[in-house]
Design a protein that fits this description.
heterodimer; A: about 290 residues; alpha/beta; three-stranded mixed sheet; B: about 950 residues; alpha+beta; 29 helices; globular; FERM_CS (chain B); actin binding (chain B)
Chain lengths: ~290, ~950
């Protein structure tokens, strides 16, 4: 259909800076209590990521300034699901994260995207929660991980928003998020971690899909989250965790033929359960009908 | 599960209705409508006549809703005419008169004729039942048995949505598909995003109105058209924006663009059915926390690739056809048995509760049809057994593979047709409901002569999703009166407790009686077989593994060849591989000894049983190449060889019958003892060891499968189906020596070993009898011609000389789709080496084997002339096995013959099951007749080449060349 093109073509990336409250969770000291993060290092890594997106890949970068009141607002992926010219503003699981959407919504509107809201907290979508890090869009279909943060009602809203596509729900094991265990590695390639939980998810995806995807398996779970972009010159770029962070998986990425590999560190965000893809929203404004 | 009691109660009905069956037979009105008879028929004032009047009354006053008019019970002797109204895809109505006893096919054909539609297999006719649910008209059943009440109103719809509409041959076909999809979109059955509505709408406008032209069209031209369920001004503006950019695009191009977009929608061609989950939680359904999946409302979607399960809009599971071993329904429940996954040992059964029994059966039928259409090479013949349980329903039309082949032969110039205006907001414009077609045939005029006016359709939406109330009980009484008698030999079980059963029974019986008319019955199902099947199905060792692509199972060491091919496939196109291997599953309750023929190895064969009240089940059987029981495979083959007696008759018949088209259906039948015996007598053949060089031809490529699979990356489904076919061309000789060649490991040499043909007795029971039947129906003819040599068949030459008068070369190439692994192992290496060998090269070599002994024999068929006969058989190594192994059970056999000027091709398709493996083999017998001026070698080469092309995924396992040369020195080709 109009919206269906191979995955990976993007023109814009939206990111949000790392606030000084990075790692501090409002009203919840328990969750990340013992994790010590290095704010400066996180900001450096963030800078490297955005630099790669802008200079290496060649995307237009829109950076929303950090907001200290919103310590997790850098995880911008969670806040919106974008496909084609439609942006669904999600409803994160944590109440205190929901105000992160405001700034993102503004940017989406400026980019002339059709902004779709999850709807009122009551009514049809009552109780629906959805976070972008549980959504894998493959270019052909959506997989929504039913996780601790995303529920079926949320997935239904997504399905109702992106009606052209099959939206399948898959289980996500443990406390992980769908994109912790997998991510797109090319138009028809999914990078998957080889953990048992990930395998379960993968099996379910294979059952549910009408299409065939190549699967690139990486031994370390954190290596499974990458950012694939087909740049303006149709070169394949893959932002992935560097060998220092995922030594066993480095060789796996070499299997991707003719890719420009961009090792991008993400150790600090990773300590908080995030990864490379968490830090950016990718948009294609050169959407073409055929 | 007491089968007996059910059978008893069932048996009564048949007897009761037998009378009627007789009366019907006596009536013998030809199926063709003969208009001349009509007035006479109408003149009779019989009780039935009143009935007719009532129905006609219903038709004329459409407002009179669903009056429960009874159809005549018995004693109807005269042809009665019913008026049918068929709502076409553009919303107009097509009225025509049909004989009351006309079958669905007749109506369908007339509508297609009216529409000038040749690629009609994607379409079907629907009607509304008493619950206002949409049902597909069964072409093989009489209309009156399907439309039980109310006016005879139908709708013409797309039944099978082609996954790739670009492959349709004619624009006109795409046009009708577009019309259907537009309606699907506007009705909301095919959900789309705003963007897609825009794009589809813009192509609709372009195809309907042509180029954007503000002067002619005005500025608001677009709001008349409907593009979406909730059409907004914004949408219309965007549509217009896009429309402006299409200048110069023809309607046909716009439709192609429309379809290219529509086909990618996730709900394209998905037929949804409401259901509830039964049984406990199925892991993959991913229920919300704390939620019991029991009773959860879901939707079952049937589509080309399998069965989809939705909860609200979410896809929560998917079962591709290869994953499904069996589908069945019982009362309100619909069950699918799932092939065990990678780490599971046993298959699981998932149950769904449907609103009522009818809904369950409807879903089951749709599944059977979709599976057959999209996955099988050719439809299965409905089971025919004396003691048959379960629904006889099978999809009887052409499969996608067949229809593609057929439509590739369409040679007419693209028909001119007028694209009618689509549905508008203002429905009042009933007068401009212009007829769609310009190329009406005269026939259509005749049928509409009654002054049936064209009516513009309202936005009548056919709901695929159904909610139904139980209404069978009310209907039961009424329907009882209409029961058509099946023959007593086919007792169906009837459970009085089942409220739904009366209605069902009617259908089954109708089916049966119809089948009986067309086919011979066999009573071959033996209890022992069932036992055997039981064991098979329960033994985990037999359970299928290693088939689905992503999950690669350890390969059995024995099967070297096929697995190797599959491995390669997996790398390239896992989807195709997925299709490649399926295990035949024997299901306990399927007593299907003689199942229908011709589903490829990967086809799912459906068997039905009724083990408790009305219980149908379709067993989805797919053959797996990797099964360990290759031995049985082999033995099965030997069985088939013996069948020649029967085949031969057919061939000779085909030859003597000069008509270009002849379809011979071969049916197992115990009754024809004579044939059997003769076949037995012919079994013993002298062993003539031969030596020959050049055996490479025999090594026809299991490995070629690889190519075909990989080629088909985009059309996965097709690849799967085709893969299933095995080709066999074989010559059968009664008295002749069969020489069998075995591939030697070396290319250069081969030792020819004579083959002993085994005698088999039991198998013959199943297979040796056949009924040679010329199918007079157009359907049959078409089927045949489409499959093979469409054009040539048309040209069939009456000048063909009889076999006995000329030198004849009979050539046979036999192929087996796959080979028993264990046998293959030795030959494996060489075969790989020879993969590259050209198929076409084979025949040439094989025809002129001077080193072979010529066996002088005169066959029974050719008493007059003394001929020299040579028979040479080339066979893959694995073929050579002993026939005393369990021969397996013949499921079905089918023979199709086509002729050209110098050749007669008889295709004999047999399907057997043995040891849990089902095998489809196609024997092609090509009889090349002619004088010396015909290059027989070339003809054979061509024939083999064609055979290979027709069945690219099967491998040729045997080539038998049999030459009969009249003994006159100058004749003969050597």
């Amino acid at each position: 259909m109009a919206n269906m093109c191979p995955y990976g073509k993007f023109t814009h990336a939206v990111v949000r800076g790392i606030p000084e409250t990075f790692g501090k969770v409002v009203g919840d000291s328990r969750e990340n209590g013992e994790v010590s993060v290095d704010l400066a290092k996180a900001q450096r890594q963030f800078g490297c990521l955005t630099g790669a997106l802008r200079q290496k890949v060649g995307l237009q970068l829109i950076e929303i300034p950090p907001d200290p009141e919103l310590p997790e607002s850098w995880r911008i992926e969670d806040v919106a699901v974008i496909q084609g010219d439609t942006a669904l503003i999600t409803r994160p699981f944590k109440q205190q994260r929901r105000s992160e959407a405001e700034a993102v919504r503004r940017v989406m509107s400026e980019l002339n995207l059709t902004v779709v809201e999850m709807g009122a907290e009551e009514g049809d979508s009552a109780g629906a929660t959805l976070e972008g890090s549980d959504v894998l869009f493959t270019g052909r279909e959506f997989f929504v991980g039913i996780s601790s943060h995303t529920n079926r009602r949320g997935a239904e809203v997504l399905a109702d928003t992106f009606r052209d596509f099959a939206v399948s729900t898959v289980p996500v094991c443990g406390g992980a998020r769908l994109k912790n265990v997998c991510s797109m590695g090319g138009p028809d390639t999914i990078i998957f971690s080889s953990s048992d939980g990930a395998k379960k998810t993968l099996r379910m995806m294979e059952q549910l899909t009408d299409h065939h995807y190549e699967v690139l398996t990486v031994p370390e779970e954190s290596a499974a989250n990458c950012v694939y972009i087909k740049g303006p010159s149709s070169r394949d770029f893959l932002l992935h965790r560097p060998a220092e962070e995922c030594p066993d998986s480095a060789s796996a990425f070499q299997k991707l033929q003719d890719y420009t590999l961009l090792p991008t560190a993400c150790s600090e965000a990773s300590k908080l359960g995030a990864s490379l893809s968490s830090l950016c929203l990718l948009i294609n404004r050169k959407h073409t009908y055929f | 599960m007491t089968t007996e009691s059910g059978a008893d109660s069932e048996a009564k009905q048949p007897q009761e209705n037998k009378e009627k069956e007789k009366g019907k037979a006596a009536e013998t009105t030809s199926p063709q409508n003969q208009p001349e008879q009509l007035p006479a028929a109408a003149g009779h004032s019989t009780p039935a006549r009143k009935e007719q009047e009532q129905q006609e009354d219903d038709v004329s006053h459409e407002s009179s809703t669903s009056r429960l008019s009874r159809s005549p019970l018995r004693g109807v002797k005269k042809v009665k005419i019913m008026q049918c109204k068929v709502t076409l895809l553009d919303g107009s109505d097509f009225s025509l008169n049909v004989e009351k006893r006309a079958k669905g096919q007749m109506l369908f054909d007339k509508v297609c004729e009216h529409l000038n539609l040749l690629e009609k297999d994607y379409f079907g006719i629907t009607y509304r039942d008493v619950e206002n649910q949409k049902n597909w008209l069964d072409p093989s059943k009489e209309l009156k048995k399907q439309i039980r009440t109310g006016p005879w109103n139908f709708a013409f719809n797309v039944k099978f949505y082609p996954p790739d509409p670009a492959q349709l041959t004619e624009d006109i076909t795409r046009y009708y598909l577009c019309l259907q999809l537009r309606d699907d979109v506007v009705s909301g059955r095919l959900p789309c995003s705003f963007a897609t509505h825009t794009v589809l709408g813009s192509y609709t406008v372009q195809s309907e109105l042509g180029d954007y032209d503000p002067e002619e069209l005005g500025s608001d031209y677009i709001s008349e058209l409907r593009f979406a369920p909730n059409q907004t001004k914004e949408l219309e503006e965007k549509v217009m924006e896009l429309h402006k950019t299409y200048k110069g695009m023809t309607p046909a191009e716009a439709e192609i663009h429309f379809l290219e977009n529509a086909k990618k929608l996730s709900m394209y061609g998905v037929d949804l059915h409401h259901a509830k989950l039964v049984g406990n939680l199925y892991e993959s359904l991913a229920p919300a926390e704390g939620e019991d999946s029991e009773g959860v409302e879901i939707m079952l979607g049937v589509c080309a690739s399998g069965l989809l399960i939705y909860r609200d809009r979410l896809r929560i599971n998917r079962f591709a056809w290869p994953k499904i071993l069996k589908i069945s329904y019982k009362r309100n429940n619909f069950y699918i048995k799932i092939r065990p996954g990678e780490f599971e040992q046993f298959e699981s059964t998932i149950g769904f509760k449907l609103p009522n029994h009818r809904a369950a059966k409807r879903l089951w039928k749709v599944c059977v049809e979709h599976h057959t259409f999209f996955r099988l090479v050719s439809p299965e013949v409905p089971p025919k057994k004396f003691l048959s349980l379960g629904s006889k329903f099978r999809y009887s039309g052409r499969t996608q593979a067949q229809t593609r082949r057929a439509s590739s032969q369409i040679i007419r110039p693209a028909p001119f047709f007028e694209r009618s205006s689509s549905k508008r907001y203002n429905m009042s414009r009933s007068l401009d409901g212009a007829p769609i077609m310009e190329n009406h045939e005269t026939l259509m005029k005749d049928s509409t002569a009654d002054g049936a006016a064209k009516v513009i359709a309202k936005g009548d939406i056919i709901t695929t999703v159904t909610t139904e109330k139980k209404a069978e009980e009310e209907k039961a009484e009424q329907e009882d009166g209409q029961v058509e008698t099946p023959e007593p030999a086919t007792p169906l079980r009837q459970d009085t407790k089942d409220t739904a059963s009366p209605a069902e029974m009617v259908k089954h019986q109708t089916n049966i009686s119809e089948l009986k008319r067309s086919f011979l019955e066999t009573g071959s199902s033996t209890p022992g077989l069932t036992e055997w099947e039981k064991r098979l199905s329960s033994s985990p060792a037999r359970s299928p593994r290693a088939d689905d692509a992503p999950m690669i199972e350890p390969l059995e060491p024995q099967d070297i060849e096929e697995p190797a091919g599959e491995e390669t496939n997996k790398v390239v196109e896992p989807k195709a591989t997925e299709a490649a291997g399926y295990l035949v599953k024997y299901v306990v309750d399927s007593i299907g000894t003689d199942l229908a023929s011709s589903s490829g190895p990967h086809g799912i064969s459906l068997s039905t049983t009724m083990d408790d009240d009305v219980f149908m089940d379709g067993t989805l059987r797919e053959v797996e190449e990797k099964t360990p029981d290759s031995q049985e495979d082999v033995s099965e083959r030997s069985v088939l060889k013996v069948s020649p007696g029967a085949v031969r008759q057919e061939v000779s018949q085909a030859i003597s019958d000069k008509k270009g088209t002849l379809i011979i259906l071969k049916e197992p039948d115990d009754r024809e003892e004579g044939t059997e015996t003769s076949a037995v007598g012919e079994k013993e053949e002298p062993v003539v060891p031969e030596e020959a060089e050049e055996a490479e031809e025999n090594e026809m490529s299991p490995s070629k499968e690889k190519e075909s699979i990989t080629d088909n990356t985009s059309v996965v489904i097709e690849a799967k189906t085709e893969e299933a076919k095995s080709l066999k061309i074989e010559i059968k000789t009664d008295d002749m020596t069969q020489i069998k060649g075995i591939d030697s490991p070396k290319k250069a040499m081969a030792s020819w070993i004579s083959e002993e043909v085994k005698t088999e007795t039991s198998e013959i029971n199943n297979m040796s009898i056949k009924e040679v039947k010329e199918m007079k129906t157009s359907d049959a003819l078409q089927q045949k011609t489409e499959i093979f040599n469409f054009e040539e068949a048309q040209k069939s030459n009456l000048t063909q000389i009889t076999v006995s008068e000329v030198s004849t070369t009979s050539l046979a190439v036999s192929t087996l789709g796959w080979v028993p692994s264990s046998e293959k192992a030795p030959a494996e290496l060489e075969e790989k080496a020879v993969v590259a060998t050209e198929t076409e090269a084979a025949p040439a070599k094989s025809t002129g084997p001077t080193s072979l002994d010529a066996v002088d024999a005169s066959t029974k068929e050719k008493p007059v002339i003394h001929t020299e006969t040579k028979t040479i058989t080339y066979e893959s190594a694995e073929v050579d096995t002993n026939g005393d192994i369990d021969p397996g059970v013949l499921l079905s056999a089918q023979t199709i013959t086509s002729e050209t000027t110098s050749t007669t091709t008889t295709t004999h398709i047999t399907k057997t099951v043995k040891g849990g493996i089902s095998e489809t083999r196609i024997e092609k017998r090509i009889v090349i007749t002619g004088d010396a001026d015909i290059d027989h070698d070339e003809a054979l080469a061509q024939a083999i080449k064609e055979a290979k092309e027709q069945h690219p995924d099967m491998s040729v396992t045997k080539v038998v060349v049999h030459k009969e040369t009249e003994i006159t020195p100058e004749e003969g080709e050597d």
